Amino acid sequence: MFDAIINLLRGGTMVSCFGIGLFFVQFWLKSKDQIFAFFAVSFLALGVSQIWSITPGTSGDYVPFTYGLRLIAFSLIIIGIATKNLFHKSE
Question: pTM score, two decimals?
Answer without folding.
Answer: 0.81
